Amino acid sequence: MGPDILAALSRGATLVTPTRRLARDLKRRFDLAQLSDGRVVWGSADILPASAWLARLWEALTRSTSAPRLLSVGEELVLWQRAVADSRYAHPLLDTQAAARAARDAYGVAVAWRLDGTDIPDLHADARAFQDWRQRFETVCRVQDRIAPAALADAVATRLPGLPAAAPVHLLVYGFDQPTPQVTGLLQTLSAAGTEVRVLGPDGPVGSCGVRSYPSVRSELEGIAVAVREHLASHPQMRIGVVVPDLGQRRAEVLRVFDDVLEPTRVLRPGTAGGRPFNVSAGAPLSEHPLIATALRILRFGQHGSLPLTECGALLRSPFIGEAEREASRRALLDARLRDRGAPQVAFGTLRFEAFAEDRTRPHACRALGARLDEWQRRLEPVRSRHQLPSAWSGAVQHLLAAFGWPGEQTLDSVHFQTVQKWRETVAGLSALDGVLGAVDFSVALMWLSRLAADTLFQPESGDVPVQIVGLLEAVGLEFDVLFVTGLHDDVFPAPARPNPLLPLALQRARGVPRSSAEWEAGFARRTLDLLRRAASIVEFSCARQDADRELRPSPLLASISSAAEAESSDRFDTHATRVRATALLETVTDSHGPPLSVGHETGGGARIFEDQAACPFRAFARHRLGAEGLEEAHAGLDARDRGTLLHAALADLWHRFGDHATLVQADADVRGQVVATAVATALDAFARRHADVLPPGLRRLEAERMSRLLLRLLEVEAARAPFRVVEREAPRSIEIGGLRVRARLDRVDELEDGGRAILDYKTGRATASRWVGERPEEPQLPLYAIAEGEAVTALVFAVLRPEQVVFRGVSDGPDVFPGVAERERSSEFDEYPS
Q1: At what angle do helices 96-112 and 73-85 cross, to 10 degrees?
Q2: pLDDT tens-digit series, residues 555-577
Q3: What is the DSSP string of 764-798?
Q4: Cβ atoms within 10 A of the Cβ of 790, count?
Q5: CA triplet 337, 343, 347: central angle to 5 degrees?
Q6: Could you tell me which residues come within 8 angstroms of residue 766 by beta carbon, excluding any fewer than 6 positions away?
Q7: Do the beta carbons of residue 469 and residue 258 sit within 8 Å?
Q8: What is the DSSP-derived secondary structure letter of residue 517?
Q9: Nearest partner of 526 among 494, 554, 495, judged by Cα
Q10: Which contiguous run of DSSP H or E holds residue 522?
Q11: Of 119, 506, 646, 803, which is most buried, counting CB atoms within 10 Å of its CB?
């Protein structure tokens, strides 16, 4: 900050910036200058971002007279959405929410750059739609006497000549890349009203600049984080900047890397209190913060009376509801229990029933949660059917959340406290919608509250920390001791053109609208590069050579920086993780004391224990000795296991009715169809009694058709076999192998014409007999059954039931026992034979 700016601010000048971050940084620099001059007390500098300054000026201009009211963010979105929905361009496939946001953004560009477009004869369809939406929006604003935030500068310029005393005496406009025609017009009006206007920008000397190359995108972040740590170790008060062009998309990765290098305690103990030595500028939508996501889940539960399984699990495991710590283990077990049920949606009644299960038989019982659910339901019932103003819903929302114990019983740290405060401001913001929405029901109120939370970017304040991690646009105008500018490869810097899709392209390019052309992007990149070179006494630009399997090339603009400073970088950096690995003393321990199997112990799961042992001994130990199982994945409708269960049940009933080959052959097509339909209906009925919410009527019809087709095709293949009789279906067995006893269930056992027996196993996936052979057979199920049954077994067969094929796979002792199954004596190994 130059001495002339300091002097002007000391005399009471107003300084306006394009961003809040730049305004805060300039205030900090002003205060430091006062301290360095030995002052103990001084007047605060009048430095504001443009949006706040315009709002203040508008308030001064309209304080003593009637004037249009400035629309809030929520009101503006409501009016744009109505303009979209009520127009002739509305369509069932049009996302009116997204279209309203796009129209709002296009309106801001059109107003700022004076893009009318009404005199262009051949507007494309999207531009014609926007013109219609804009006309509707502006008409409503005139009728309701409102002003959109994008038009506030024009409204100020219109009123200012009538009240010139409201204008500042001295105005400094600092850090704007290209003032828009709207801003230029306002500044001219201010000059005419007597304001001394000066447009300024950073003009410091060029620092010592260099370019560094890194092997990968990840190593680039790690290398810079290590360099930052080394600078802070020698100069703790040094002010360091890190620029990440795509910070919005990489925010989580940046946090992980800088925590690992600068704050390893957060890696070792997530949730550690205390501030970081760095601040990441890109805020996340308020709705994505875990505390607020929990609040929205609670409210959606009230709206629908149910939640998707994964959402319900996240709610149960959240620390931000009542008694979360006390019942943490039980609620995790309750989540597992709900996943075992398999329903993709968890209804309120289901959750309450499971929460109140008997403690002695149900370890997932959660009495405190059940009591919370009852109180929440008691508060929800009276308001669920109400129609009231959004302001009334503000209080109702907080009342409902309190019933669930939100935001939890733990003491809120600074971040969580700020998050709760921001949420309360957002909920209170519903009140601003009274005039545009009127009385609405709970669903509509929650919809708009969710949108407001999603549209609110929130970043908790962290105080003045030495390291600032910012995006490319935010970095312009800031000053540092050392600056690292990352990610400058050729497809990011200059960035590709991204003109607004709702505005005429030719008009955007003619007016020089930002992002509208490659030429504009190239000029902007050059101007930005020049400003970044002046932002610190030491500036390091960098680029990675590889991003996954994509090769990256440095930006051609970096060629203007002396190549003598280029340096190759190692792919290994001294992060916390590498330190731990380097200093670890490894000790090998043979643990032979796992939970013992008692004498006579019998394990379930059939051959699965042998499959797991063949695939991975530790997996078998963890699953079958320690009882470790993963959580069930949520799914909509039936999964592969459900379909297999249904098919097995239908086949068992089918062969109960036919019984043998002779009966099957005698049955004509109509009889076979009736028997198949009955078997399928019986299986579906039994399944629906246990899982009514998984099998709605429409899905049941489709599943019945699918199963019937497979079973009828199987009967055709079975009819081509030699005579047989089905002697067992879903037959339980206790099999002992090497002292280990397992419980199994044989899908089917047939008695053949020569008295031998065939064991059949139904498969709905791919199956081949070759998976039985080798030292570690992948599917030892049928061979194990054969060992248990003895020499009477003369055929082992998979009955493969797939939409594209219904065939037999396996081996037998004689020829032509099963169509397509080879005789064992003629085969040197188990192959997959053609059908």
Answers
A1: 110
A2: 999 988 865 344 444 445 666 66
A3: SS---GGGG-SSS-S--HHHHHHHHH-TTEEEEEE
A4: 8
A5: 85
A6: 800, 802
A7: yes
A8: -
A9: 494
A10: helix 518-533
A11: 646
- Residue-wise pLDDT for 675-726, tens only, equals 999 999 999 999 888 776 677 788 889 999 999 999 999 999 999 888 999 9
Residue ranges of alpha helices (H) inside 63-124 are 73-85, 96-112
pLDDT given for residue 400 in this prediction: 93
| Residue found under tokens 């009230």 | 302
Of 486, 509, 488, the residue nearest 497 (C-alpha): 509
Beta partners for residue 806, in sequence order = 801
Tokens of 449: 């509250």
Residue whose tokens read 């670890």 = 584
Q: Where are the beta strands (DSSP E) in 110-254?
A: 146-147, 170-174, 196-200, 208-214, 240-243
Please tell me whether the peptide bond between 494 and the residue prior to it is cis, using omega within 30 degrees of 0: yes
Indicate the helix (H) or strand (E) that contains 34. helix 20-36
Among residues 185, 113, 150, the alpha carbon closest in space to that of 500 is found at: 113
- CA 180, 185, 188, 194: dihedral to nearest 10 degrees? -110
What is d(CA 170, CA 158) in angstroms, rounded to the nearest whole number?
Answer: 20
- How far is residue 131's CA from residue 75's CA, in Å, rounded to a whole number? 20
Cα atoms found within 13 Å of the Cα of residue 242, Cβ hemisphere only: 31
Phi, psi torsion values for 15, nearest 5 degrees: -115, 130
Amino acid, single-letter form, for residue 379: R
pLDDT at 274: 52
Rg of the chain on CA atoms, in Å:
36
Write out the two tokens for 266.
């957060």
Report yes or no: 829 and 801 within 8 Å, Cβ to Cβ.
no
Nearest-angstrom CA–CA distance, 407 and 397: 13
Please answer whether residues 652 and 644 qualify as being in contact, where contact means their C-beta atoms are separated by less than 8 angstroms.
no
The C-alpha atoms of residue 177 and residue 474 are separated, in whole angstroms, by 12
- Reduce the DSSP state of residue 244 to 3 states and report it: coil
How far apart are alpha carbons 774 and 614 in whole angstroms? 10
* Both tokens assigned to 705: 């058709």
And the tokens for 602?
Answer: 């019998």
- Using DSSP, state whether 534 is helix, strand or coil: coil
Gap between the Cα atoms of 685 and 224, Å rounded? 63
Query: Do residues 756 and 796 lie in contact, with contact meaning Cβ atoms separated by under 8 Å?
Result: no
User: Which sign does the torsion angle of CA 664, 667, 668, 672 carry?
Assistant: negative
Q: Are 408 and 321 a contacting pair, CB within 8 Å?
A: yes
Q: Which of 79, 61, 56 shows the shortest CA–CA distance to 148? A: 79
* Residue 292 three-state SS: helix
Query: To which residue do tokens 């494309």 refer?
Result: 124
Rounded mean pLDDT, 650-667: 93
- Rounded Cα distance, 630 and 722, in Å: 44
Extended strands (E) in 181-239? 196-200, 208-214
In angstroms, the Cα distances linking 229 to 264, 267, 541, 583, 806 are: 12, 16, 18, 20, 64
User: Cα(514)–Cα(798) distance, rounded to whole angstroms?
Assistant: 65
Average pLDDT of the chain to the nearest whole number: 86
